[in-house]
Amino acid sequence: MSRLRxxxxxxxxxxxxxxxxxxxxxxxxxxxxxxxxxxxxxxVNLDACGPRHVYLSSSDPxxxxxxDGTVHTVDxxxxxxxxxxxxxxxxxxxxxxxxxxxxxxxxxxKSSNAVLRRTKRRWSPPPLSVMENQQPPFPKDVEMISxxxxxxxxxxxxxxxxxxxxxxxxxxxxxxxxxxLRVHYPIDREQYPQIIFTVHAFNKYTNxxxxxxxPITVNIKDENDNxxxxxxxxxxxxDEQCDQGTIVGTVNATDRDEPNTDHTxxxxxxxxxxxxxxxxxxxxxxxxRTNTLDxxxxxxxxxxxxxxxMNGQANGLSNQGLATVVLKDINxxxxxxxxQLYKAEVLENEANVLVLRIPVEDKDQKGTPNWxxxxxxxxxNESGNFWIKTDPATNDGLLYVSKPLDRxxxxxxxxxxxxxxxxxxxxxTSSWMKIPVELSVKDVDEGxxxxxxxxxxKVKENIANGTLIGTYTAIDPETKSSKGIKYYELTDPASWxxxxxxxxxxxxxxxxxxESSFVYNNTYNITVKAVDESQKTGTGTVLILIEDVNxxxxxxPPSNLVVCAKDGIRGSTxxxxxxxxxxxxxxxxxxxxxxxxxxKWKLKNLKPGNSVVLEQAEDLPNxxxxxxxxxxxxQGKGExxxxxxxxxxxxxxxxxxxxxxxxxxxxxAILAMLLAxxxxxxxxxxxxxxxxxxxxxxxxxxxxxxxxxxxxKFNTEAPGEEVKDPxxxxxxxxxxxxxxxxxxxxxxxxxxxxxxxxxxxxxAVHGAGTYQSGTMGYMTNQSTLASGQFGGGHYSTSSYNKFxxxxxxxxxxxxxxxLDNKLTFLGEEEDGRFAADxxxxxxxEGVGSPAGSVGCCSVLSEQDTLDFLDSLGPKFRTxxxxxxxxx
Length: 887
What we know:
With 887 residues, this protein is mainly beta. Among the domains are: 7-117, Immunoglobulin-like (Sandwich), CATH 2.60.40.60; 128-221, Cadherins (Immunoglobulin-like, Sandwich), CATH 2.60.40; 229-328, Immunoglobulin-like; 336-442, Immunoglobulin-like (Sandwich); 449-547, Immunoglobulin-like; 561-656, Cadherins (Immunoglobulin-like). It has three helices and 61 strands. A hairpin with a 4-residue loop joins strand 10 and strand 11 (97-106).
């Protein structure tokens, strides 16, 4: 058991602060005036910090703070009468730091309210130290550990934690009886700079702890066993011709030894290139010593750098690296021509041809704007006959002829070409170079040349055919004569002009129409070709400027004119006219109503213009009206025209309401309706004739059960009697037939058993075409009804159903079930059970059919029944044998 000391009055008053901090702002405690070493005075509450790991320290060396927040005295301490104040620093892993003020006030020893507290002196030794990389032999003694409880008890010591039971395992051990701490192998400080393990003191006799577990801190002392390592790439770029003292780059090196010691105090130095570069020994910044670094002379420099710890002392560890300094190109060299003068020949009348290639040299870095050349023609190209560009592959200048040259006008041309770079010159006293170029124009036999390249002629439209509107001639540039030259039209889109072959006269061959689509902006173009005796040709263009005449009257374009009918208000619409002539032969127009429109329509806004307002003069019913209008141009030329106007109710301005079916029909519509009605009546008479034929019912005798039957003439194809068959109730699954036929036209049956769909208990009487039920419950979807109809509905007490509403598909399903049962029955019984059969002609398909037609059940009308299946004779035997498989 640890010893406790009684102390008087300890009062903790902790005020917690919630916000960004996880600890309270200050702690106030009452303590005795004299505090022994190891006395617990207060505790900083760390509960609000959660799982975060925090570091605690005291601003007063007389006090220490444990990891759990408890504050203890280090040595014997006295508290002044006016109290003592210090603070505890709390810092988390993210670097957030908070300050906790601790206020201590002495307790009045005579006060009856003083709280006594027992305390003990902690057996905490100062942190221990072990040198890293110790040499054998091992183990080596480190320090004695002693607990205060050893005074009163016979104890032994046990240690655990890092360095003992966890990594690095087995580094330390303790002699149990003496508390001597030992180290067993070398340790690397760079891997384990500090190790904290726990010591336990146990009573030898009771094996119980006599004191609280004590954490022991062992600091590993550093040895200079790591040389500096360069932490960045030693590669730098600097402009050539840069000023002296320009920063090239910074060398960075790190040392794994203990920081802030000579073991990590690195000094840098250069081992070569000191005439060109300088390095700061402390910062590692490399600068230039000269301004003459020339990339064209040497592009790269390799400088060896040394980093040495111990402040560069000879006993320090060092490392060397090779730094590469690359000079960045600047445009300090202009392009230079290889020749002092360039000469070339060029043919006249040629365009867009390469005349000359001009090479240059540039010492700057190839492919950069400092090397790429740009050429200009600075003299001799005032007429724009030449242009020059750069060959991107070779950087040469390429001189082209852009417009044909005429040797007769100029046989020699002198140009001046300048070469410059894309980038401007930097740190250079040179300037852009220029070179003269001499070009000789070679003579070529040329074709005729027209007097002017473009001839303009003014012509009124609609002039007579054959009118000479002008002459377009050419001369031979060699002889300066028009002798022997012939002329032809090269292009004439509308075929309006013909060219006189010998004279170049231009005559009209068709009417020239200014409003034609071939005319643009009152201009019509043709091209003329001239051919000399040597078959050389020349071309020229004739622009015919067509003058307008009044050859068009105003017209009203076709459009949907709508007059909206409104209650009490007469509607109106705007009528617009156009004239394809130009002023003064077009608008403004004048409008007048034609004959027959007076009294019904009137015009508003009669001022001359391009449109007029047409409105009702009287209320007109909805419909389409033809309104005559006389439209004249500014010269009074015009004609009467008819516009179509619709008067209607509108959903919006100019939009009629969709028309309903008109109550007024034309003659053909009425005849079509009468014809359709007549055809409908004939079709109804045909249905009545077909469906109202009566079949004969013949009672027959069944050899086995003695019930009566009848054979119906079904689906009669020849004229016959009207058939009115009784309703047939066919046997179905789950239904037992109790009574047979009761007479020829009525069937009475009793349903006694239950089916899957419901319960049947009362009698059902079936008459011709009607089903009346007194049955309680409901019928299933497989119930079979009269006339072979199959119903899928739900029937309850006193319900009625018309069989004609049932599905024909279900009818055939019912027929299929009934026929299967009948075939099975006929196939097992003897022939003698069949009654006599009265054969009738039915569905005759030709001579030699012994069994006749078996299509008697193909069509079932609403009035037909399947009673005839109860009395089928021998002719149905064949079909029964085929369709029935006997086991």
